Amino acid sequence: MAEVTLSGISKSYGDQVALDDVTMTIPDGAFVVLLGPTGAGKTTTLRMVSGLDRPDTGTVTIGGRDVASYTPAQRDVAMVFQQYSLYPHFTVRQNLEFPLKSPILQTPQAEIERKVNAVAEVLQISHKLDNKATALSGGEMQRVSIGRALVRDPSLYLMDEPLSSLDAKLRSDLRIELKSIQADSGATMLYVTHDQTEAMTMATHVGVLDEGKLVQFGSPREIYENPVSIYAASRLGQPRINVLPSDVFGGAPNKATHIGLRPEQIFQGEGEDSFVRRVEHLGDQTRLHLSFKSHDLITVTDAHTTLKEGEIIQIRPENPFYFDASGARVS
Amino acid sequence: MSFSVTEPAKGTKWIAGFLVISYACITLVPLLWIIATGFKSPADSIAYPPVVLFEPSVEGYVNLFTERTRATPEMLEAAGPADTWYDEIVRERGTIISGPSRYGERFLNSVIIGFGSTLLCMILGTMAAYAFSRFKVPLKDDLLFFILSTRMMPPIAVAIPIFLMFRNLGLNDTHLGMILLYTAVNLSLSVWLLKGFIDEIPIEYEEAALIDGYTRFQAFYKVVLPQAATGIASTAIFCLIFAWNEYAFAVLLTSGTAQTAPPFIPTIIGVSGKDWPAVAAGATIFLVPVMVFTILLRKHLLRGITFGAVRK
What we know:
The complex is a heterodimer. By secondary structure, chain A is an alpha+beta fold. Chain A folds into two domains: 231 residues, P-loop containing nucleotide triphosphate hydrolases (Rossmann fold), CATH 3.40.50; 82 residues, CATH 2.40.50.140. Chain A is 24% helix and 32% strand. Chain A is built from eight helices and 17 strands. In chain A, helix 3 packs across helix 4. In chain B, 67% of the residues lie in helices and 4% in strands. Chain B has a two-stranded antiparallel ribbon with strand order 1-2. The longest helix of chain B has 32 residues. The radius of gyration of chain B is 26 Å and the shape is globular. Chain B starts with 9 loop residues before the first helix and ends in an 11-residue tail after the last helix. At the A-B interface, strand 6 and helix 4 of A face helix 10 and helix 11 of B.
């Protein structure tokens, strides 16, 4: 229930530049996923918004107000920490109650019980409520940590890789739950992940960070179909985009030095010969590892293909991306 | 033959056990001797060669708590039969009880001053240690060194200035004065010890509490303090032991109202000959509070309550 803006945010820890002039506007009710490798500044961005750290320069506004002088509590944000940070001297229930009992919220006891039970239900930890927080598995701790954010009704959720320790089934269940909780409450969400499935399925907006710089911000589809650089293009897509020297196919624009090919940009059945090195049947799709003029390519083909290792297949690019020497998109 | 990295070999265990038990015996002998002496008769207590097996008597304890005067047989006759068991013991020695001794008062002074200064030291020490551990304090390292440097000479070296200062401030022979003095001496130890313990508590817990709607101070006492319990308990034990056993300042700065037990116990010797059983009885009782305090806090001395809920 709040629009969040970051303008010109920079932050260094000693010599280490964590964020470099980051500007973005997170619309009210948006689900923003920040993507980038370790050290790109994703967690630092969350810390700037939460108020746990202050930017060296730049301003953060939440709901139109400059929050520079606000404490984390006053900013009305809930955060899921990557390290879980459960209170070790409390039980699971006490951990979940803690934010509701804060002097700011002072929730009545009946309300606390209702909310805690509801959240525990969603996260499938009802049977662990009276366990000590330290007597849980990693996945359970992570769910309690999500629960501690979900019991509240903040204007902004901040989540730092909240699903990283969960098994595949639970992860896909919770992906849907988180998305629907966020959509129902109308709260704004800022979400950090490595997992592109999470980014593609949940995000309304994706921010791509590279060494503290925001290189692209837009809808997941925009970033997938219209990346600004090799770096942004390789954040999304499974299998990853193939990057080859631009002259292997010909027809490249002037300044281009590299051609980027997503699997669907490789047309199979006509064009030049390539050698099938390996065939991976994944069930719903089949991955082909090709060798083309001594370059390796990975693409996707029909699930029921009869292609075998050692055969020859023709391929040609279809609407590929071209990049210049610095990695920026040319066309 | 199996070999384990975590389990020590049997021989090693035996040697370790033997060393620990021998060390315990060596340290316990003087303690046991004092406790035994408290139950000896005056004659047994100075017997040579020393008596190990003796007929126990509580005379030392009776003498410790009473003031007695020597009485002639006529006076004993006049006083009539003994009313109580301790009266009887005293009369067998040809004395009568003239009143209670000051040991009770002195012991109470020790309790007030020892626990008072420990409490104050813990409150100030925990907060200072927290600040040093978490905040950017200007000149932090220098300040910590200054604090530690107060321990680099024996505290008694500054006894004269302190004596003069106390006289001007009217703190001589007062409980408050002694509490402040012991707190000042112990504070450096407690700040350093507690800072180590607080440094080990991951800052993520407080950050979570700040996000959860608590202020810094609320996060401190709701989240940090419970986890620092181990450190606070062990530091409190060290502070109490120092304040409890301190002798030199107590001799110099207290004489009447605020005199603690350590300077009082030796004065028992002079009252009616060398009454070693009474001295030993005083020392034995004097040991009890620190022992009880340590046993009560023992469970907090076990490490491990804070492990596990933060992913490293």
